[in-house]
Amino acid sequence: MTGPDSGVPAPVDSPTPPHGTVRMRPARPAEPPRELPEALAVRSEHLLEALPDPTYVVDIDLSTRPAGSRVVWVSSSLAEMTGYSVAELRESAPRLVATHGRDTSALLEALAAGLPVSVVRSVPRSDGTSYRATVSFSPLGAGAGGWHRWLVTVRDATEELASAVLAEERAAAEERAQRGLSLVARVSDILADVDSTTALTEIGALLVRRIVPWAAFYADGTQLQKVTDLAGISYHRRDLRRQARLRGDIPDPVVGLFLDTRMQTVVVDPREPAEEGTLTGELLALVAQDDTAPDDGPLWLLPVLGRKAVLAVLAVRPPDRETDEQALPTGELTTVLELVARRVGMAMDNLQLYDREHRLAETLQRAMLPEQSHVEGVDVWSYYAPSSEHAQVGGDWYDVLDMGEGRVGVVVGDVVGHDVEAAAAMGQLRSVVRAYAAEFVEPGKVLGRVDRLVASMRIARPASFVYATLHPRPSGETWDVAYSRAGHLPIVQVSGGRATQLEGANGPLVGFGGRPRHTGHAVARPGDVLVFYTDGLVERRDRSMRDGVAALVAAAEKIDAPDAAGIGEELLQELADAPEDDIAVVVLRVPDPASDPTHTWSGPRERRWQMPMDPKTIARARHAVLRACEAWDVEDTAAAELVASELVANAVMHGWGRVDLRLRDTGDGLRIEVEDANPSPPVVREGRVGRVGGFGLHIISRLAEWGWRPTPAGKVVWARVRAKEPWAQRSEQQEG
């Protein structure tokens, strides 16, 4: 039994601080106390009084129940510390440090074993106050009848415990700081992957795992919406300043957050209904629809700041500190969330800035490329792809010229570099070549004139190109091919299943001629193919240019596609799987009226075209679909032609950039894909009397299955036109 009546110190009720941990150490076997001479006893009392801490000596008998105790001696310093007299302490000293606690059993075991032990106790003073003290029991020996004598030291531990509490608080603060720093570092790792389409979702999940119950990002476009990737919304944004003026004095904290470019935290209570038509109301409605969001509690809103504008809003539900012991203090939580919002904002701003530069560069590049690659009388297919490692702008170009009287001109060139200066030089050269091609017939003279003009223009970038003209001979059975090269790769001609290089008429790069240019000649027969290209199609780090051209020749000999688009598609699949430079390709096929359009061939049943944003593109798209269906032996083409026409018309009317048309025979139908740079999804509108447009998707829905998907450059709208039974049977036979 322990307690005030037992005379045995008992544990405290509160958790024992580090200094209150019971400490034990081995003791020498106790010897029976001996009666000391009076002089020696007096000397011992003087020695005990000289101890720095208040003490008393007590005899404890643990063999009885309850245990007995009697005070033998009390120091005057203990009396001064507690305010009690020495006589009073002789009666109450054992109870002075005896309280109940969790370390009772450990204390009793130590005393029974005769081992020194220390505990932390609350010691009362005579004035009713108390103080925390470290009470140490040191064995002095065993006496007769089960009595054991102990020296008890009562040391004031107030300052020591305060230092321990301060150390614990500092350790907790360091741990919270480490949590915050590790979270921000992890956010930086996530933001390093700028191509991730789920970066903001991952950051929100990270915040939920570490510091808050719920988090999400919202951005404003045509309406407020939840965003998951760093691209955010950089198009079709509402004029929030105008909206704020129109709303007048109606409070709208979210609009204020978007318009104020300072870092701040706005608190919104979902239990207080927001005004209808406000951004705050839109946000609260979105949060209410989110199944992962908690049902109650306030929302903290922080701006995701870019350089000059607020790009999004970070919405979080703060933790409940009454139930969450690990919750960060309000100030520290706000600091961490602000750091996260700032880092996300800079990453979004950089990505959108890069995207704007990318679009500008690509628009510049496309503007300098030709807007027409279809010439009556010949089958022409052209393709351009910038290198993904550069700024989507460079010096590769092609041009297809309808020169009248059945004459066709083809130019493919390459200016050194992948920057705006290279693109500008390319644009100048293209204009110069077009001008001289209209004036002179012979390619060698055209290149000679270009040399003189480029030398006077002082274009700093070296460039290579090949210029060729084709026109039917009077007999009508063959075509004459005239060409001249300025340091460019040779044209590849495929005739009768054999590919050869037109290596003649070569000279220095443009601007370095200094002497007359020559013109080479070749004969092309019906069905022959001419391939013009830049080095991006054949050059790789793991092979020489010569080996690359040899690979092109070998690939061209194996192709048996009946149209230029099919030939170009096979060349790209064979050679452009991992391009390391810009690619420009023009494939020209001399028509062969005597060829069998239903012959079978082994190439891929896929086609692609790149077309400008021009109303004429709609007619070109219909023509491209008809040519592909003819090559694939598709008889019923009306539905496919109409669907492709409507998809391309929508892209021309509502998109920007360029139009990419792709066709693929899936075995049970024709899949048509149209890509443009407008990321906004297609919208089906109800047809009304007097409305112009709005019926295209209704037509497509009746003829095909359709859908859309976002892309890094915009969106793709696709449709699948199901095949009728004869076509499906032929496809199965060909696949078998």
From TrEMBL:
InterPro entries associated with the record: Bact_Sigma-Reg (IPR052016), HATPase_C_sf (IPR036890), HATPase_dom (IPR003594), PAS (IPR000014), PAS-like_dom_sf (IPR035965), PPM-type-like_dom_sf (IPR036457), PPM-type_phosphatase-like_dom (IPR001932)
Name of this protein: SpoIIE family protein phosphatase
All copies of domain PAS, residue ranges: 45-89
Keywords for the protein's UniProt record, in alphabetical order: Hydrolase
Chain segments carrying region Disordered: 1-36
SMART domains membership: PP2C_SIG (SM00331)
